[in-house]
Amino acid sequence: MIQRRFDADPVIFAHELAEYGFCARAWWLRRVMGVVPSNATELARGTAMHRVFGWQRLAAQVLWRVGLLLLLGAVIALLVQVL
Questions:
Q1: 30: Cβ–Cβ under 8 A, 6 or more apart, which residues?
Q2: What pTM value is reported for the model?
């Protein structure tokens, strides 16, 4: 269903810039014409999956750094033992 938005918010958010960069027509349809996507459920599920992926990536980065610190500690301990 199409509903025109005449009270368009003059503020454009960062995620809207990304949406515009991806597909200007989709941004215009949603922002100006007020068209609601028919696949809102799928979009919400995709957003949730990306959020989980983001947390997994953060955890992997933290674990990588902890591993490097442990390796460095082991090398230092070995050097101290040898010398």
A1: 19, 36, 37
A2: 0.53
Is residue 4 a contact partner of residue 30, using CB atoms and an 8 Å limit? no
Note the pLDDT tens digit of each residue in 7-66.
555 777 888 888 889 999 988 888 888 888 888 889 889 989 999 999 999 999 999 999
- Mean pLDDT over the full length of the chain: 87
CB atoms closer than 10 angstroms to residue 67: 10
CB atoms within 10 A of CB 60: 10
Q: Which amino acid type is present at position 54?
A: G
Query: For residues 3 and 34, is the Cβ–Cβ distance under 8 A?
Result: yes
* Separation between Cα atoms, residue 38 and residue 50, nearest integer Å: 20
